């Protein structure tokens, strides 16, 4: 197996850490979001019960997915919405392109949809002659820079205002050196207003799709999903099938959890419920699988599909905060991305479940109680068993197991090992032990506890 | 088989054994003063609120808050004299020049200062986003404690579109610095009638 | 009550004083303690690396050594948690029994022995590192992410029994130090950065010592302190709970 693949996240993290001041800034900025989340949830005495309710509703959804989707489709069609089904990203992209072409359009405005990132929709549309403009401010910033989002809620969180200022100077003609967020946001507002007013097709994501009513909810703070959808002749909403919930009253649970977990807001500025196209408008929903039904079939990993994309696990993750979103080389970064990505491609994403100390903070902040850190542990087992680890690691682990399961070999290795520390589990990866790059090892003691005990207690 | 049938078959084959919807998924929130809670949260999210006795007080306040403003539209008959344009247009693009929209909100939520509006209040769905400034008039008697209470009263598909609005549009996408007035309204003023 | 002392491999080899302090502490509070001589390792180094399927030998050895004790106690939250969650055996009944009877040292002292007094003195400023596996795995203290009350911390409860000690409050009271097993070498850059940030939090509050329930985390932070030629030292909580002037 290719060791390079395993080290992808670690290598990217090395690069990210070359600028320690920026790492500190990234860490502090995201920790600030985590503290806002803490303050918001502390105001809800029933917070833990809400999480439990959300978790159980989602467990029900996973177990009743087939019937809920059929119910949703039936009701949505009755509402005048056109339903499309896409087995994978390619099919999703082709459906979207077809709808755009049917509308006779060559340009589209899009609000935030991690699903379209997962499907690489923008590149596909551009290759097919369609111009796409992302309307979420953070997404617009990274789009101008030809970068993917580094965070599922805060797409441009890896950039300083100076970097945004430079990008806007280049693309929007803002004053050189201008970094005031108010000024920069105003420039984007003007630019995107013009976009909203001139695009015939708008694509949005879906936060929740309601089986009972055949409608869907889109949450934004900026109002960009609404501006796009309400001004367009054609509204396309793209959703992974796991976005379904049984009834509208369940939104009470999820809307109480989502924004508080994400940014510490009591609710997003707009929580828009779409049920029917406005007169003269076309409304389409594309329901996407792209590996989700496979994940649904994995008992240890299926409940990753409960995710509502709040990003609380990213903000709290001490590794994410210090390695940056790009180190995860996947549309969804951070702990949740690390348990979703191996389902899509085990070989490509074999490194991600190892980009964690298994500290467990992710599972604690998760509003739908996904056992994220336990799944990271379980993915490690699956990936190594199926041979996605480097051969050298397998050999080393086998050697270590042989020593550690034998009291005699263990003590022998210890006698030798305390001198050269060859035996320490943390040194097994290779000969040039990276421990020493920035840390000392403890002074080896004269005798092990075992030897001390034999000498002192048995005597 | 169509993609639809393949997907549904695969989902059916892979979904786990049925788990019930939990018995409890609504909770009670207790606030000593619902109106005050609503105002506190609205202020926290960058909006402003004023308790007023009647529409005359709203009119007086609006004339101070937005003096000499043009391109004003309202759906409130009581304030019709303040409007010089209408939201009753057939093409939503005609609202691109709207400066101030004054609408009514039939239901408000104390825990998060969210106000529900749907097509009964909105002649055009885009009105509360495309307007530069937004005013919503609510009544104290329609403030409920939390979102569970709100959904008990709402029929979300009564009209084709409805939304909870909580404060003015905002973004923190540049270095987590909060900027009010992203793509939607630059301010939200809420008048609270008895 | 017969207590089996489980000393994790790296403590046995590199920090025998922590094991000695643990033994003395347990004897001081009245336990009959035995250290089974054929013990080795809990198997976590392999398991967390994705090789749990190679831990069968360690598991069997663990069961052979510890099946007959009323309690198994270990000065490590991490290794205790691993046994609690992952110990299985051809003698599954014995493994199940061990999983239910193994305790991390501080939870054993507070929950089983209800220790309310200790004759210990440690007149220094001390920062407590809440190791994640003890904290979020064994619930040794209230977790900062959860909305629960009232606040509690088993290690702090014990440290408060020590004369002269001054415990400082950290800015981030339960952030991971970045040790993470093999993570500390496979993700060296992030691991070290996390460690430096944790250490800096303690240093900002003027500590003389950093303590904790897991030697692995302390070893990592000690390595960073030493490289920086810091005068601040690490001590396992057992060493402080047995300290005298």
From TrEMBL, chain A:
User: InterPro entries under this entry?
Assistant: 4Fe4S_Fe-S-bd (IPR017896), 4Fe4S_Fe_S_CS (IPR017900), FTHF_cligase-like_sf (IPR024185), Helical_ferredxn (IPR009051), LUD_dom (IPR003741), LutB/LldF (IPR004452), LutB_C (IPR024569), NagB/RpiA_transferase-like (IPR037171)
- List the GO molecular function terms: 4 iron, 4 sulfur cluster binding; metal ion binding
Annotated 4Fe-4S ferredoxin-type domain ranges read: 297-319
Which superkingdom heads the taxonomic lineage of this protein's source? Bacteria
What are the GO BP annotations of this UniProt entry?
Answer: lactate metabolic process
Ordered alphabetically, the record's keywords are: 4Fe-4S, Electron transport, Iron, Iron-sulfur, Metal-binding, Repeat, Transport
**Stated name of the protein:** L-lactate dehydrogenase complex protein LldF
> What species does this protein belong to?
Spirosoma fluviale
From TrEMBL, chain B:
- Ranges for domain LUD come to 101-193
Entry-linked InterPro entries = FTHF_cligase-like_sf, LUD_dom, NagB/RpiA_transferase-like
Q: Where are the transmembrane segments?
A: none
Q: Which Gene3D superfamilies match?
A: NagB/RpiA/CoA transferase-like
- The lineage's top-level taxon is Bacteria
Q: Cite the Pfam families for this sequence.
A: LUD_dom
Q: What is this protein called?
A: L-lactate dehydrogenase complex protein LldG
Organism of provenance: Spirosoma fluviale
TrEMBL record, chain C:
Give the signal peptide as a residue range, or say none if absent. none
Q: Among the entry's GO cellular component annotations, what is one?
A: cytosol
Q: Which Pfam families match?
A: CCG (PF02754)
Which segments constitute the Cysteine-rich domain? 3-84, 126-221
GO terms assigned for molecular function: oxidoreductase activity
What transmembrane ranges does the database entry give? none
Question: What is the recorded name of this protein?
Answer: L-lactate dehydrogenase complex protein LldE
Query: Which organism's genome codes for this protein?
Result: Spirosoma fluviale
């Amino acid at each position: 197996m290719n060791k390079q693949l395993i080290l992808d996240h670690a290598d990217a993290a090395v690069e990210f850490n070359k600028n320690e001041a920026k790492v500190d800034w990234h860490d502090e900025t995201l920790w600030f979001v985590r503290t806002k989340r803490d303050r918001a949830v502390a105001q809800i005495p029933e917070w833990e019960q809400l999480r439990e309710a959300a978790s159980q509703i989602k467990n029900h959804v996973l177990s009743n997915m087939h019937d809920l989707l059929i119910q949703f489709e039936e009701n949505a069609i009755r509402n005048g919405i056109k339903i499309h089904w896409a087995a994978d990203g390619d099919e999703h992209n082709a459906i979207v392109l077809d709808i755009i072409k049917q509308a006779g359009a060559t340009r589209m405005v899009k609000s935030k949809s991690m699903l379209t990132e997962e499907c690489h929709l923008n590149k596909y549309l551009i290759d097919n002659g369609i111009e796409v403009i992302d309307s979420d401010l953070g997404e617009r910033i990274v789009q101008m820079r030809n970068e993917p989002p580094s965070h599922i809620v805060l797409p441009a969180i890896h950039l300083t205002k100076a970097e945004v200022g430079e990008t806007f100077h280049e693309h929007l003609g803002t004053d050189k050196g201008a970094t005031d967020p108010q000024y920069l946001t105003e420039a984007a507002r003007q630019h995107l207003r013009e976009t909203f007013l001139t695009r015939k097709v708008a694509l949005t994501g879906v936060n929740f799709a309601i089986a009972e009513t055949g409608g869907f909810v889109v949450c934004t703070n900026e109002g960009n999903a609404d501006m796009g959808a309400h001004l367009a002749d054609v509204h396309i909403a793209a959703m992974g099938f796991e976005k379904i919930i049984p009834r509208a009253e369940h939104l009470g649970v999820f809307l109480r959890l989502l924004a508080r977990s994400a940014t510490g807001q009591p609710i997003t500025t707009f929580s828009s419920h779409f049920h029917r196209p406005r007169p003269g408008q076309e409304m389409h929903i594309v329901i996407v699988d792209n590996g989700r039904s496979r994940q649904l079939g994995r008992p240890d990993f299926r409940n990753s599909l409960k995710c509502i994309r709040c990003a609380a696990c990213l903000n709290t993750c001490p590794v994410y905060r210090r390695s940056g979103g790009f180190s995860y080389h996947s549309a969804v970064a951070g702990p949740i991305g690390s348990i979703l990505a191996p389902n899509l491609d085990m070989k490509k994403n074999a490194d991600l479940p190892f980009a964690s100390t298994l500290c467990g903070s992710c599972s604690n902040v998760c509003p739908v109680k996904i056992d994220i850190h336990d799944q990271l542990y379980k993915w490690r087992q699956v990936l190594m068993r199926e041979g996605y680890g480097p051969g050298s690691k397998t050999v080393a682990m086998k050697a270590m197991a042989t020593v550690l399961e034998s009291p005699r070999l263990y003590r022998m290795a210890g006698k030798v090992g305390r001198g050269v520390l060859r035996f320490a589990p943390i040194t097994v990866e290779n000969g040039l032990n990276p421990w020493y790059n920035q840390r000392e090892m403890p002074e080896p003691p004269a005798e092990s506890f075992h030897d001390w005990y034999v000498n002192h207690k048995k005597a | 088989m169509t993609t639809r049938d393949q997907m549904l078959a695969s989902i059916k084959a892979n979904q786990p054994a049925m788990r019930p919807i939990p018995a409890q998924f609504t909770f009670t929130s207790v606030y000593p003063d619902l109106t005050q809670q609503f105002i506190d949260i609205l202020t926290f999210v960058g909006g402003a609120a004023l308790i007023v006795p009647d529409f005359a007080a709203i009119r007086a306040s609006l004339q101070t808050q937005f003096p000499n403003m043009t391109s004003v539209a309202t759906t409130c008959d009581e304030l019709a004299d303040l409007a010089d344009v209408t939201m009753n247009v057939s093409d939503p693009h005609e609202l691109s020049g709207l400066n101030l929209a004054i609408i009514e909100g039939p239901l408000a939520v104390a825990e998060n200062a969210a106000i529900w509006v749907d097509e009964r209040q909105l002649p055009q769905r885009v009105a509360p986003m495309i307007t530069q400034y937004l005013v919503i008039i609510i009544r104290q008697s329609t403030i409920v404690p939390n979102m569970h209470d709100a959904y008990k009263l709402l029929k979300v598909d009564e009209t084709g579109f409805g939304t909870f609005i909580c404060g003015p549009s905002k973004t923190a996408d540049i270095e987590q610095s909060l900027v009010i007035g992203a793509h939607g309204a630059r301010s939200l003023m809420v008048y609270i009638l008895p | 009550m017969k207590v089996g002392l489980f000393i994790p491999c790296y403590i046995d080899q590199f920090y025998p004083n922590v094991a000695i302090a643990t033994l003395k502490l347990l004897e001081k509070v009245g336990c009959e303690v035995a250290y089974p001589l054929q013990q080795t390792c809990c198997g976590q180094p392999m398991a967390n690396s994705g090789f749990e399927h190679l831990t069968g030998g360690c598991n069997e050895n663990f069961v052979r050594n510890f099946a007959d004790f009323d309690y198994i106690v270990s000065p490590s939250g991490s290794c205790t948690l691993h046994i609690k969650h992952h110990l299985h055996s051809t003698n599954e009944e014995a493994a199940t029994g061990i999983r239910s009877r193994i305790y991390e040292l501080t939870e054993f002292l507070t929950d089983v022995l209800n220790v309310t007094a200790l004759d210990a003195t440690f007149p220094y400023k001390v920062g407590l590192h809440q190791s994640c596996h003890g904290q979020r795995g064994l619930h040794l203290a209230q977790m900062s992410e959860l909305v629960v009350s009232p606040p509690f911390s088993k290690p702090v409860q014990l440290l408060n029994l020590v004369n002269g000690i001054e415990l400082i409050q950290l800015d981030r009271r339960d952030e991971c130090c970045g040790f993470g097993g093999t993570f500390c070498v496979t993700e060296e850059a992030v691991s070290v950065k996390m460690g430096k940030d944790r250490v800096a939090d303690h240093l900002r509050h003027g500590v003389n010592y950093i303590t904790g329930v897991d030697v692995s985390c302390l070893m990592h932070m000690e390595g960073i302190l030493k490289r920086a030629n810091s005068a601040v030292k690490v001590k396992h909580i057992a060493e402080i709970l047995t300290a005298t002037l």
